[in-house]
Design goal:
The chain is mainly α. The protein is built from eight helices and no strands. GO terms for molecular function: DNA binding; sigma factor activity.
């Protein structure tokens, strides 16, 4: 006997097929590890599935799903038992970037991973997901002033970590002046 399917399984399956990759990518930018990103995205999608029947605004699903991914990431970083980075004799295997300067992407990814989690979440949402200040504040559940200050601190930390050898990530590229 086959298990009973809920009436919203079809809708959720379509949403999952269309958005799972985007959620995984956002999680990767937050944590810098594809395995952890997969876990974060899966946890977020399970939470989304459980909440699906209560979601009245299906036009705002992307914002809600993004919020669940960010909050799952932040909650994971608060856990006392979380994994610490382990030094090994060989660098980890990273997936090859589709085009662009792979070396610069790896350096940027490593620098982003060294930025504190809340600042990293703001940077990813503002500059990768291209959300405005208000949208970012809504995802993180904080004020717009907090978003602005965390973005400023995160950019300073990122520039410090990247150093002068990466001028493409300097003031003019990351000031956010062209952002909403």
């Amino acid at each position: 006997m086959a298990p009973a399917r809920s009436p919203w399984d079809g809708e959720f399956s379509q949403y999952f097929a269309a958005r799972a990759h985007m959620l995984r990518s956002t999680a990767y930018l937050l944590c810098g590890d594809w395995h952890r990103a997969e876990d974060i995205a899966q946890t977020a999608l399970v939470k989304l599935y459980v909440a699906w029947p209560r979601l009245s605004r299906h036009d705002a699903l992307d914002a809600y799903a993004r919020r669940v991914v960010v909050r799952t990431f932040l909650a994971e970083n608060r856990r006392l038992w979380r994994r610490r980075e382990q030094l090994t004799g060989e660098p980890p295997e990273l997936p090859a970037a589709a085009g662009g300067d792979t070396g610069a992407r790896m350096v940027l990814s490593a620098a982003l991973a060294a930025v504190p989690p809340k600042q990293r979440a703001v940077l990813v949402l503002r500059y990768w997901e291209d959300l405005g200040v208000e949208e970012t504040a809504a995802v993180l559940g904080c004020s717009t002033g907090t978003v602005k200050s965390q973005a400023a601190r995160g950019l300073v930390a990122l520039r410090r970590l990247l150093g002068p050898q990466f001028p493409q990530f300097g003031e003019s590229a990351m000031t956010g002046e062209t952002r909403r």
